[in-house]
Amino acid sequence: MEAEAAKYIGAGLACTALLGAGIGIGNIFGQYLSAALRNPAAAASQRTNLLLGFALTEATGLFGLLIALLILFG
């Protein structure tokens, strides 16, 4: 019984990576929008960096979710 409770606690802690990913994605897009409004001419050249940052941040969240699922069902 205690082992099952520990599994749920561990999976919940692993899901905190999703919280960090959400904050990171919001920060990335917010800063991009702020910079694009200040200098619209440079916005197009930074779009690749925006998408790369988004992909890496989202991958971090997905890895956390994968770990949580492995703890629960592995």
Automatic annotation (TrEMBL):
Keyword Transmembrane helix applies: yes
Domain (V-ATPase proteolipid subunit C-like) ranges: 9-71
Source superkingdom: Bacteria
Topology term for the membrane: Multi-pass membrane protein
Role summary: F(1)F(0) ATP synthase produces ATP from ADP in the presence of a proton or sodium gradient. F-type ATPases consist of two structural domains, F(1) containing the extramembraneous catalytic core and F(0) containing the membrane proton channel, linked together by a central stalk and a peripheral stalk. During catalysis, ATP synthesis in the catalytic domain of F(1) is coupled via a rotary mechanism of the central stalk subunits to proton translocation.
Family affiliation: Belongs to the ATPase C chain family.
UniProt-recorded name of the protein: ATP synthase subunit c
Species this chain originates from: Glacieibacterium frigidum
Native organism taxonomy: Bacteria, Pseudomonadati, Pseudomonadota, Alphaproteobacteria, Sphingomonadales
Gene this protein is translated from: atpE
